[in-house]
Give the backbone structure.
Amino acid sequence: MPTVRTNGIRTYYEEYGEGPPIVFLHGATSDHRLWAEQATPLASDYRVITYDMRGHGRTGGSERASYTIGLFSDDLSALIEALDLDRPVLCGLSMGGMVAQMYAAESPETIAALCTLGTRTPEILRGEWVERRLFPKLAELLSPLVNPDRVMESLYRYYEWRDDPDETGTLEKAERIQGDHVANFPDMEDEEMRKIHDVLRSYPFESVDHSEITVPSLLLYGERESEVAAPHAEYMADAIPVAEVRRIPNAGHNSHVDNPEFVVEIIREFLSIVTNPCESD
């Protein structure tokens, strides 16, 4: 299994193809397998890297008591350095997009472009206060009686369903993809699951200066998750100097599973511009 030492852990990764590098970041409690199937078609023209973030998949957990998006960003920095990636494009889904945008704001000179799918910013936009401030606090208060991780898991699934009633089908597709590549694959430990949920709970208290993201940025969201994801995409687009927002048709939160052909094609179009800027003149 290919692994590399990054920020005190052994990170599992896979890579395909040759050319300008692009790094794909998965969502919370997922792993590289959900990106590998969709990303490999790009390997004919690009060096495609997918990896398991700390706590996930074959990378597994670590001795740290808690994780943050900032820690994942530091892990990503170490991965880019360890693999000697020359200004890669970052493409992150959901929590992976949180990591990618934070890294892009802190180290824009080290990447060529940013792409996010169905992600959020730390900012609490209108209508989100109850979900992102009150519910986590209630989960903590109820923790002596109810497992707070189960409360938060139910909450996140509710909001996914609210924005996309077909999301259940999407989750089944995601489980199928991961099941098709399940050989000797470890399940996430309960303690690691708790740390990941803590990451999502603490994210609104972190900070990202989107005006510092000076690379071209493509901000995507599924049309069936527009109530939550679209406002955050527009928020980023208003702050990032060069940014475009696009809606993915017939897709919910796991848009790269719902409509993989569209996602791959729009990312390929974006890559052709940012990795070959002369062609866009």
Remarks:
- The chain has a mean pLDDT of 85.
- Residues 3 and 12 are 4 Å apart (CA to CA).
- The longest helix spans residues 148-163.
